[in-house]
Specification:
alpha/beta; Hypothetical Protein Aq_1857, Chain: A; 2 helices
Length: 107
Amino acid sequence: MAITLTAAAAERVRRHLAERGRGIGLRLGVRKTGCSGFAYVVNYADEVLPQDRTFECCGVQVVVDADSLAMIDGTEVDFVRQGFSEAFRFRNPNVRGECGCGESFNV
C-alpha cells in the first residue's frame, strides 16, 4: 500500500507548508459526491490521527485515513500548471470511471 508524489507535487506541498508556518505534510482522502460517486479531498495535515496511515515520498509526509486508502491505494499525486490554472492531479489505478467534468470518480 502506498501513495506517491511527483517531484512537482512534493515541492508544492513543501512550499505551501513553509508559507503556512505549520503542518506536517499532505492529507489526502475521498468523500462521496458528484455524479460518479467520489471526489478527492486535499488538505494540509497538522496531525496524524489513530486511524491514519502515513507515507513518506520525496521528503514529504502523506497522511491518508484508513477508509479512503482502499480507494486510492497506489495513487500518484502530481501538481500541474496550465496557463493561469494550477492543481493537484491524481493517477489512481483503482478508478473505473470518471464524470465528464473530471470532478468525481468511481471505483
